[in-house]
Amino acid sequence: MDIRVAENLKRIREKHSLTQEAFAEAMGVPELAVYKWEAGRLPVEYKMLVKIADFYDVTVDTLLEDVKEDNGKSAATDKITFNCRICGGELVYDYLDVTCRCANCGNKWAIAELYPKYARVITLINKAGRILNDKPVMASADEAKLLYSQAIAECSKFNDVISSELVKICNDGCKGAEQLEIYCRGKHFFDTRAYKSAVKELEKVRGYRDADKMIERCRRQAPSK
């Protein structure tokens, strides 16, 4: 494999603050493949070069050429744009869904696709969200909090509109993890028939999962006097 390609793949990935793991996930390949590409031990097929170039919004030639250091200048994809790259229409961002859509032609992209430097952040946010929506156990709340904290730390490397909005999502996510903690305590009291304690906790998270139903059942079992 051309050593220039290997060096360019590593240089561009690091410029966008992506780990090999995050980049591999974005490309749909094993992390080991990215490691071998950057070490010059595995050739990159042309179709994959096209996919990588599109991901970074550069030309294939950029990945093939002998590029000198850019003296710290930001990559073009580091700039936040609010216009569709197809029709020029205004982009409308859905930060909860981590996507953006053109208000004119309707084309939709993942934010990580337009701005690769956020791929790691968005991976962490999506993983935390899946955990919170999975099993209602205390360990899930703890793990989700950790992931959101890591995502916030990643966002601190940037100072733009998108990073600010992603931090807000992380903060909301942490609140969701706190809700899950309270719910789990209430459910534990419910399961052990400590109904008054269960109501005390579950009242704090009314509307969350089946908290309201458990509150009703608790009051039927231990009506207030």
Explain how this protein is built.
By secondary structure, this protein is mostly helical. It contains eleven helices and three strands; from the N terminus they run αααααβββαααααα. The N and C termini lie far apart (79 Å). Mean pLDDT is 84; it is low at 68-80. It is elongated and about 75 Å long. It has helices at residues 3-15, 20-27, 31-38, 46-56, 60-64, 111-114, 119-132, 138-155, 161-191, 195-202, 211-221; strands at residues 91-94, 99-102, 108-110. Helix content is 58%, strand content 5%. Helix 7 packs antiparallel against helix 8. It folds into three domains: 3-73, Orthogonal Bundle (434 Repressor (Amino-terminal Domain)), CATH 1.10.260.40; 80-114; 117-221, no CATH class. Strands 1-2-3 form a three-stranded antiparallel beta sheet.
